[in-house]
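Notes, p. 3: input format for complexes.
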Amino acid sequence: MRTSTQSPRPEAATQQRYAAAAKAPEAALCCPVEYNQDLLKIIPREVIEKDYGCGDPSRHLKPGEIVLDLGSGTGKICFIAAQVVGAQGRVIGVDMTDDMLEVARRHAPVVAERLGFANVEFRKGRIQDLGLDLEILDAELRKHPMAGADTFLRAQELAVDLRIKHPLVETESVDVVVSNCVLNLVEPQDKRQLFHEIFRVLRKGGRAVISDIVSDEDVPDLMQQDPALWSGCISGALREDVFLKAFEDAGFYGIRLLNRDAHPWRTVQGIEFRSVTVEAFKGKQGDCFELNQAVVYRGPFREVLDDDGHRLRRGDRVAVCDKTFQLYRKAPYAEHFEFIEPRVPLRTEDAKPYDCAHGKLRHPRETKGMEYDATTEAAKCCDGGNGGCC
Ligand SMILES: C[S@@+](CC[C@H](N)C(=O)[O-])C[C@H]1O[C@@H](n2cnc3c(N)ncnc32)[C@H](O)[C@@H]1O
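Output follows (390 residues plus S-adenosylmethionine):
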């Protein structure tokens, strides 16, 4: 049992440290990042000075998107995102520390006035439990203060109820989840749940773009128990391969490193801690139907394996189901494939279930039709129209 003389739990240490860092800037928590200077112009100085990020996920946002920023701090990424997504988009920042929320909320109207529209809001919650609105829970508990085990159990029931009736962030409501230097701060036993929560709140076709600190080796237990190293974004860092695998385990696909700093931010006992930015997509789940489509992997690798188990050899005309065909047509895959539709399209309502995980090849006759026997004149262009013709 933990006694009052022991170090605080990592989450409590984190909250204390960031409450202080919301009041006065703490240089040690800052990892230098080059943000787009044009987008910083309208952001109040206090927000910029209390920057505790390690990357810039906002670079990868598009106009009109609904964005959720996990661990939004004083709001810098939210205020940058607000400008990128524009008046048609929306930005929600979530943080668990009141002092951080206070700074962010105080500056939100200033940014809105300078922008000419208000599209940012800040909510209080823990990012590993995005269902639970801590401000509503707090208000309820003030009305019915806790005393004894019975009320503690009732409070737990209330939390379950709130997650269903008034979720902090609704299921499948967000286009992009971003985060800047926060996932590492979540305690080890909650990390799996954290990745599942990111997956839950994203709509199908949505993506996560996460900047965080990772390590090149496992962080020893003793280092993990150091609250200062924990809250300083060191001890809670996942090993870099484990970080990518966590997205895979939560059901994401097309996971890739958008950035991996060549130089470590810090090195502790020979272990390197550096910033990475990872992108991961949601949407590979669903039924497979046969519409006689095929794809050709263009290379340069001899063979690749996707997150659904499809193995594709360079140059092979591989039969895929419609779901996979449509996924490959979008980022991050599209540039790697050629797409082959059947000469005579099948009607979707006639499509049969199809398991394309076995890498079956699609014979050209299947694409063209067994009866196809056309003979044609030379085409005008055979290089896609980019220059001289044959
Ligand atoms: C390193 S700072 C990053 C702040 C901000 N993203 C930035 O770029 O400046 C970490 C922030 O995450 C918040 N935080 C840490 N763990 C959290 C958790 N489990 N749930 C919600 N917020 C958390 C802290 O309160 C703090 O504001």
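The chain has a mean pLDDT of 93.
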